[in-house]
């Protein structure tokens, strides 16, 4: 009997001990959960004031994409757009830079059946209309030319010079100063126009004395055009003075070229 009581007593003690350990384990787990809840969440740490993060750079703690500064800038900045392609406006075609073989252009016809690159049509028309409002009568005498057109003009110039006694070599070199060699003419770009006065249509230096040219030389840059071959830049452009030849380069470039008194080659070299 005593032996049975001893065994019952031992079993009771073991049960109580196990129960106590189980309760202790549960209490331990509960305590660990409470501790983990006291640790600031990721969001809390990201938005914590600077003074709560001593010794740390706030920008290093907060991911760059979600800092208050960048978050505001993303909301306030205008929509990002691709930069405008201006390469076509500033394409350089001269004795050293020939027209690309794969070059093509979309043309738009003017009232007098001349044609230009469709992208400059509105600026050209506005310039001519504004000149007419001033009582002037500008006329686009020449504009876009095909390769065949340029070949004919160049050959004719060479022929006239030959008749004046120039050798073939001399005639070709001199002709190129006034009529660009085929493939090197801006007229083939569709961005160049020869503008003359209605009362005086000759392509001569005296063109500079007409009211139309005086107005154009002072105002063409406002519409994106420049006097392409100034008298004092012939050594750079390789073309003689043409106070009637205007080239479209866009308003920003035209304004700078006009203000600084430089030519397109100089502008591109500085850019």
Summarize the structure.
This protein has helices spanning 2-38, 42-47, 58-61, 68-76, 121-133, 147-163, 168-178, 211-219, 234-237, 251-260, 264-270; strands at residues 107-109, 115-117, 138-142, 192-197, 225-227, 245-248. With 271 residues, it is α+β, with helices and mostly antiparallel strands.
Describe the structure.
With 271 residues, the protein is α+β, with helices and mostly antiparallel strands. It folds into 2 domains: 2-76, no CATH class; 107-145 and 185-270, Muramoyl-pentapeptide Carboxypeptidase, domain 2, CATH 3.30.1380. It is built from 11 helices and 6 strands. It has a 4-stranded antiparallel β-sheet. A two-stranded antiparallel sheet has the order 1-2. Helix 6 (147-163) packs across helix 7 (168-178). The longest helix is centred in the first third of the chain and has 37 residues, at 2-38. Residues 1-9 and 11-83 have low confidence and may be disordered.
- Write down the CATH topology of the largest domain: Muramoyl-pentapeptide Carboxypeptidase, domain 2
Number of domains: 2
Largest pleated sheet: 4 strands, antiparallel
Specify the overall morphology.
Answer: globular
Percent of residues in helices = 40-55%
- Specify Rg, calculated over alpha carbons: 41 Å
What order do the helices and strands follow? Answer: HHHHEEHEHHEHEHEHH
Largest sheet: spatial strand order:
3-4-6-5
Tell me what portion of residues adopts beta-strand conformation: 5-15%
CATH top level class name of the largest domain = Alpha Beta
Which segments are poorly predicted (pLDDT under 50) over 5 or more consecutive residues? 1-9, 11-83
Instruction: Find the structural class using helix and strand composition.
Output: alpha+beta
User: Can you tell me the CATH architecture of the largest domain?
Assistant: 2-Layer Sandwich
Average residue pLDDT: 78
What's the total count of β strands? 6
In DSSP terms (H or I, runs of 4 or more residues), the helix count works out at: 11
Q: What is the CA–CA distance across the termini? A: 112 Å
